[in-house]
């Protein structure tokens, strides 16, 4: 059977509009399509392939575990899951870990836990969840409603209730909504899909204080910022703020699907047997790969390297902007970077992404006017320089068009 891009349109549900080329091989920060054309990867599978493609440590972990045990269900526990949970507990604020298969599932678990905790401790009336406009927390009906982008949640019928949205980095907006009926505040320390927008330290500190005042749990969605992306193992470590619940996925498995919810003993005890579960969550195959990913990333060499490589990106983008003046702002933390387009190119981020692909470079968008970069945390400096050269070629053509 011949596999071509046109087959997608024949057999796949049309909720995606993938690029015209089909990658078939990846190594490090480069991929090759069916025609043998090479691309430099600044997209990282949307901040997932934290160690690039086919990293030998991850490949080795996968092959080793594949010969041992793949799946058990949660009627039984397994060694890789326990080893991964121990590493996460030892290296974060958390005491307990729950494993899922994705960021959306991890956030679903966090929200259900927050509601159950509040109900058990304070009563049925404490059920309000507050999140932030332009936030993104997944695609389940609960998480997409908590996410602050109505375009993703409208059109599916009645939404889950008792969910409100404040303005990101605006503490007065949160003050106007929060009360003793609030059971949780969910926030990304840096909004990813919403524009690669970091929270200010003052704002996060004030959010923490408001949660404490109203006995509300603070949930950090670190699906995109976690596992080294910001230059720390988790983004909360960049701030003097500790959440009550943290969710992680994407880079946690380095490309193999896995997610996790981390929390404290006092909160975790409210998910007693039968209250929540996952058939595949914590399976030995995923946990073995994730353990290798976390142990590889959580080293001074890799984490310090993130900051050095981020500076290369920023310096390179600044030089490009001196020539072409297409960016109004370049922001982010570590290797999650957003380049906001000027008014002249507003709404054309996808055009920039397509133009980059034509030059052999993969980038992302974050909304209609922001080009997003989320490369491997260990991308070679030479690949950064080569990729930025290709990006400049794409921009030159966009400017002339």
UniProtKB/TrEMBL annotation:
Modified residues (N6-(pyridoxal phosphate)lysine): 250
GO biological process: L-arginine biosynthetic process
Protein name: Acetylornithine aminotransferase
Keyword Membrane annotated: no
Listed EC numbers: 2.6.1.11
Pathway: Amino-acid biosynthesis; L-arginine biosynthesis; N(2)-acetyl-L-ornithine from L-glutamate: step 4/4
GO molecular function ontology, one term from the record: pyridoxal phosphate binding
Main localization, broad class: cytoplasm
Note: May also have succinyldiaminopimelate aminotransferase activity, thus carrying out the corresponding step in lysine biosynthesis.
Domain of life: Bacteria
Compartment(s) of residence: Cytoplasm
Keyword Ribonucleoprotein (UniProt): no
Listed Gene3D superfamilies: Aspartate Aminotransferase, domain 1, Type I PLP-dependent aspartate aminotransferase-like (Major domain)
Subunit structure: Homodimer.
Family label: Belongs to the class-III pyridoxal-phosphate-dependent aminotransferase family. ArgD subfamily.
Residues holding pyridoxal 5'-phosphate: 136, 221-224, 279
Species: Rheinheimera salexigens
SUPFAM superfamilies on file: PLP-dependent transferases
Keywords: Amino-acid biosynthesis, Aminotransferase, Arginine biosynthesis, Cytoplasm, Pyridoxal phosphate, Transferase
Enzyme class per UniProt: transferase
Pfam families: Aminotran_3
GN (gene name): argD
Cofactor: pyridoxal 5'-phosphate
Reaction(s) the record says it catalyses: N(2)-acetyl-L-ornithine + 2-oxoglutarate = N-acetyl-L-glutamate 5-semialdehyde + L-glutamate
Binding-site positions, N(2)-acetyl-L-ornithine: 139, 278
Cofactor binding mode and count: Binds 1 pyridoxal phosphate per subunit.
GO cellular component, one term: cytoplasm
